[in-house]
Specification:
With 150 residues, the protein is an all-alpha fold. It is 72% helix and 0% strand. It contains six helices and no strands. It is elongated and about 75 Å long.
Length: 150
């Protein structure tokens, strides 16, 4: 079936259909979280945990490290959202419950490392590896579930 319309401009019905398809795709939030997101969070947490023994020199350093962790987490989420929004898809965001599950092991690991770090020097490194592994593992499981439900 041939038409004599220009290929540069879609017809009003084609444009409306394309806009509706884009709206539905955006509303669905069907894009899985990018593969780099959870490893970056894991490296961020591990880096802050590995720096904690150095922070024992000054009492304010722990607060500064926790603030750096919060700022890095926020920045990572903003970069992810910006990258996905540029693609024209609503970002798939973690619910509050999912964020709490993701972050739940971090305070106990931090406290255990703080309590045991003076006795064994390797405790902070082990806590950092466990935290990073938890972040990456959570991301893998979350993305598999998200793909299965899409």
């Amino acid at each position: 079936m041939e038409t004599h319309e220009s290929f540069d401009r879609p017809s009003p019905s084609e444009a409306a259909a394309a806009l509706e398809a884009a709206r539905q795709a955006r509303a669905a939030g069907s894009a899985p979280i990018h593969a780099w997101f959870f490893p970056v969070l894991g490296l961020l947490v591990a880096g802050v945990m590995m720096a904690q023994p150095l922070a024992d020199i000054a009492p304010w350093a722990t607060i500064a490290l926790l603030a750096a962790l919060g700022a890095g987490w926020w920045l990572t989420e903003r970069l992810y959202s910006r990258q996905v929004n540029r693609a024209g898809i609503a970002p798939r965001e973690l619910t509050l419950r999912q964020q709490l599950v993701l972050a739940a092991p971090l305070p106990p690991l931090w406290i255990a490392a703080q309590l045991l770090g003076d006795r064994w020097s390797w405790v902070w490194a082990a806590a950092a590896v466990l935290a990073a592994g938890w972040m990456v593992g959570y991301g893998i499981v979350h993305d598999r579930r998200a793909r299965a439900s899409a």
